[in-house]
Amino acid sequence: MTTTETDWSKTETPTTAEGWVSRAAEVSALLAVDAVTRDKEGKTPYAEVRLLKDSGLVTLLGPTEHGGGGQEWPTAYRVVREIAAADGSIGQLLGYHYLWFWAARLVGTPEQITAVEELATTNRLFFGGAVNPRDSDVTITDEGDTIVYNGRKSFSTGSRVSDLTVLEGVLEGTDKHVFAIVPSDIPGLTFHDDWDNIGQRLTESGGVTIDGVRVDWASAAGYVDKTFTPRVYNTLNVPTIQLVFVNFYLGIARGALETARTYTREKSRSWLHGGYERAVDEPYVLDVYGDLTSKLWAVEALADRVAEEALVIHRAPDRVTERERGEHEVRVAAVKARATDVALEITAGVFEVTGARATASSEGLDRFWRNVRTHTLHDPVAYKRREVGVFVLRDEIPEPTWYS
């Protein structure tokens, strides 16, 4: 990074949700300085992750007794939006970190939750995840007191810049998926530099080879005496990560609007036949900005509302019912569909009101669309709309899967 470093140790740690969002805005301002250059170079974002650590943002959901922020998911989502407005890749990395940090609470035993959160919060550790449920490409062998992971994942977001990696595989001879958290530098993990997509270029989402990674059964998330105890809360990983997606899509869209607004104010020329001296006075320009901003504000409000609705579940995880979980997933599906459409519309639409010169690579305005377009293909948005339609017409809730 070429930004001016901040000595975060000399600043007070935020104690409120608004304080943490303000801290995120400070970090976002630093990330924005060289975001265009960073996107072009595509270098591994070690410095950017260090900034997330030094600023304390990685500890946002951590227990206060271990130096964490003690915040809840609505604040985490807003923080992700702030970071993504400057750099969609770093916003995604932070959002995934929060999900994998929280994974212990979703799946783990009480003892595992306590150990993981103390370790990660105290040391400001950063999480990545080698989890790709579409492929049965990692096999786990039971060797008594230990299990051994072998295989390859085609995606492993954030792992090259992480301290801890969440592994997932299928126990040999069964259909049981087993999650475990391991140090990212453990022997047997090889992260490949093969992420070469048009957007989200700094997410380090390349493949990973897993060769004989040995884990104690005691570290297998949620397993006691080699038996997994199901909870409805286990299935909340999907709606939680989908809301992470929603919020970095919206952050990217806001970043595009703000960047375009600055360009229009400072560089755009009015159309020579329009009869106006300034671009900011042209009626069609005003209409487009008003239209896109209104749509963004509406989906942001819905996203915040759905996040607040989930607090009942997160605060009492062992009392959630299948129906409550299903109705929440439908709401998440609805906002995911709207966020996808609006983010794509905004990141493409800003070119209508910035002009031909705004397509110069030095402006970097294209990165917002490339980032949104890349990640919104994660899972088909049509199936999110289908979940909502089935609920409305047949009063059926989605069956928990890896994507619903």
From TrEMBL:
Biological process according to GO: L-leucine catabolic process
Natural source organism: Actinokineospora spheciospongiae
Acyl-CoA dehydrogenase/oxidase N-terminal domain sequence ranges: 35-112
Domain of life per record: Bacteria
Organism taxonomic ancestry: Bacteria, Bacillati, Actinomycetota, Actinomycetes, Pseudonocardiales
Domain Acyl-CoA dehydrogenase C-terminal, chain residue ranges per copy: 244-378
Oxidoreductase found in the keyword field: yes
Signal peptide: none
A GO term for molecular function: 3-methylbutanoyl-CoA dehydrogenase activity
Protein name as annotated: Acyl-CoA dehydrogenase
Key words of the record: Flavoprotein, Oxidoreductase
